[in-house]
Amino acid sequence: MTTRQIWQLESRPEGNDFVSAIRLVEEQIPPLADGEVLVKNIYLSMDAGTRMWMTAREDGYNPPLPLGSPITGLTMGYVAASNAAGFAEGDLVRGFGQWSDQSVVHAELGGLFKLDDSVEDIRQHFGVLGMNGWTALWGLIETAKIQPGENVLVSAAAGSTGMLACQIAKILGCNVYGLAGGAEKCRWLEDEIGITKAIDYKTADIGAELGQIQDGINAYFDNVAGPILDAVLPNMALYGRIALCGLMAQYSGDGRARGPEHFDQILMKRLSVIGFFSPDFMDQGERLTAQLKTWLDDSKLQMPFDVTEGLENTLDAYERLFTGANIGKVLVKL
User: Fold this and answer.
1) Residue 332, CB half-sphere, CA atoms under 13 Å: how many?
2) Where are the domains of the chain?
3) Residues 110-119: contacts with CB within 8 Å, 24+ apart?
């Protein structure tokens, strides 16, 4: 029986202190059960939503990871062995595996997805063509129901989902505004992506800046909630829509966040607030990928990658998500 290196949750992290809570260990790879696939990982995806799984919070969209268990996340690699119909040795796949050099993934329960290995940059299966792209497209079209000419605001706009939401909204004919942390990110959003305006939430008076948007915000793609949502609500247009897909402002906490300070604006402006996340559109992957690939092939979408090399450096990469050090998709290359 061969072994693998794998990151294991030893305790609940405090803030961004992942080093004290997560340990790299070596273990034997168990025999594959029916429906399971062994994947030799080539990339690990660093995603902020996994932070909630590390807390003791019981009412999240996934139960908390038990202490002593492997850290789970999206991985990409080649099938090394298969005990699942439809997957053969050598297939390029993406699914919910483990932060490890080799993942054991249940093909159905782990959302294993066979990938097109002819794509020029296979990292885009974690970018434009991956969950971030799916989330951005679904949230804008199906949840926020954006229309040409509308004012669309995106939080965490320089993150991997946010920047794709900005680009897709622009493709669909909207006036796009982004919230990002730091002058460099804001310049990048305006100069490289070409959004209407980027606002630095670290230094700007967010409410005052949003108040200058003529006719208000028709649709808000929210990745963070928290105090930023408080600033957005009074600046929404009548009958505006909020598509909420992330809670970055509270991922590290075990308790509930208080309600928005300007909750009354939901009534006064007749707003729709709808939460959504990946289980809502997992069965639509092929359709979403087809549309995203058309835009990617036409050079209408771009995704920069923030790559850290080496499994042993995974926690350094993960921390970049929460310190704002990255522009674009954070990956670990094995």
Assistant:
1) 26
2) 3-126+303-333, 131-279
3) 111/282, 112/37, 112/84, 112/87, 113/285, 114/86, 114/87, 115/76, 116/92, 117/92, 119/293
Is pLDDT of 317 > 80? yes
Please state, rounded to an integer, the average pLDDT across all residues of the chain: 92
Tell me the angle at which helices 131-138 and 160-171 cross, rounded to the nearest 10 degrees. 50
pLDDT at 225: 85
Secondary structure (3-state) at 86:
coil
Q: What is the pTM of this model?
A: 0.89
pLDDT at 48: 82
In this prediction, residue 101 carries a pLDDT of 97
**How far is 231 from 209, CA to CA, in rounded Å?**
10
For 74, 108, 148, 242, the CA distances from 47, given in Å and listed in that order, are 8, 21, 30, 22
Rounded average pLDDT over 190-208: 96
Task: Enumerate residues 6+ apart whose C-beta is below 8 A from 131.
Answer: 45, 47, 74, 278
CATH code of 3-126+303-333, in short, is 3.90.180.10
Out of 3.30.70.940, 3.40.50.720, 3.40.50.2300, 1.10.287.130, select the CATH number for domain 131-279. Answer: 3.40.50.720
CA 2 to each of CA 26, 32, 75, 125: distance values in angstroms, whole numbers, following the listed order: 10, 12, 20, 28
Are 3-126+303-333 and 131-279 equal in CATH topology? Answer: no
- 255 pLDDT exceeds 60? no
Cα separations (Å) of 189 from 94, 157, 165, 196, 197? Answer: 28, 8, 12, 9, 8
